[in-house]
Amino acid sequence: MSSQQLDARRLLCPLPVIRTQDKVKHMQPGDQLEVICTDPGALSDIPAWCRINGHKVLRTEQDAGEVRIVIEVQ
Amino acid sequence: MNTTPSPAQRKAVALISGGLDSLLAAKLVLDQGIHVEGLNFFTGFCVEGHTHAIRQRDNPKPKRNNALWVAEQLGIKLHIIDVIEPYKQVLLNPKHGYGANLNPCLDCKSFMVGKALEWAQANDFDFIITGEVIGQRPMSQRADTMPVVQRESGAGDRLLRPLCAKHLAPTLPEREGWIDRDTLLDFNGRSRKPQMALAARYGFKDYATPAGGCCFLTDASYSRKLVDLWQARGAREYELDDIMLLKVGRHIRPRPHFKMIVGREEGENNFLEGYRKQFIQLRSISHRGPLVLIDGEVSDEDLRLAAQIAARFGQGREAEQVALQVVRHNGESQQLQVKPLGGEQIPPEWYI
Questions:
Q1: What is the span of the domain harbouring residue A7?
Q2: Residue range of the domain that includes B32
Q3: Which CATH number does the domain housing residue A45 bear?
Q4: Cα gap B318→B314, rounded to integer Å
Q5: Which residue of A has its CA nearest to B56?
Q6: Residue B346 domain flag
Q7: Which residues in chain A are closer than 8 Å to B57, comparing Cβ atoms?
Q8: What is the ipTM of this complex?
Q9: pLDDT, tens digit, 9 for 90 and up, residues B123-136
């Protein structure tokens, strides 16, 4: 199991979702991915993408203009 | 959530724009026991998503990506595909030309169905669904152009349009009995009432504006800015940053060789801030005012004119003198003191 980070800062939705999707495609069940974004829309879109694709959102944080979303690949 | 097909199940891939038509089309097919997954293409010109994120005034509205919302309502997977690069050829060289603005709708639809076909073949799916309705759009959804999409996309009779299928020849999924043609619909024309009635019957609420309008290329003001960009560069080409910036701020071209992008509010100023290393930037320091980017090579005289215009859009517009800070690409900065231009000194034709 691995932990990886995805820098999606300055990208506007849906690009953070697309980058997350493309990254997760190459990860294994149980792996964790932390996505860092500046578009607050990611707070809604990435969890929605996780729900429809069966991945788990472990936590979301928002501070200093950044959003961090940690996903566990299922 | 119906996300894993059974071995005997037929599989369809649905083009999901986030609007009502594609939601209903996919729902009709799902109800036939077909395994459906959604595809959403990101061209860079989609109104969806990012544009809502830029402007501060949109903050109170809940942000959502409508294509994801549709997929969630349907309980299907959604694959969002970045087609920014291949889409350039569609926009720059549309075989069937443009609509009222720079919208190459017919080529665009064929392109997207063609991409869906590639995806379907790669993932062993049987057919493609779209929410097209005959007679609904002046370019891509006419009786004479809908066969063009079938032909030029390569999808042929693997393309099913459930909302208006009864006006069209039976497709492969209907002929093979994967889909019962009797359950498909006969919508036509521009009225949205049948779609809204069907949505109510299914219990879908809070769907995105039914009339669509999901592409900036159908917008006259946006198209004008894109043409201006091409003219100024002497080449019909663009990168993602170019087309994103056309969605933000006031665009003013006081001289042929440079234009200004003036933030209209805090959200836009913050967004423009991200481009500070690519452009000369101007900001009033004596009064509150917008962030302004300058696109083009400017002389000292040009810079002074730009500063006078920039000052016009800040709280110092009536002041005798406004101090502005100029920051160049390399980080070097200088201050300018200028008298703001009066509104009448900025000719309307400078606004793009």
A1: 3-72
A2: 11-217
A3: 3.30.110.40
A4: 9
A5: A40
A6: yes
A7: none
A8: 0.94
A9: 999 999 999 999 88
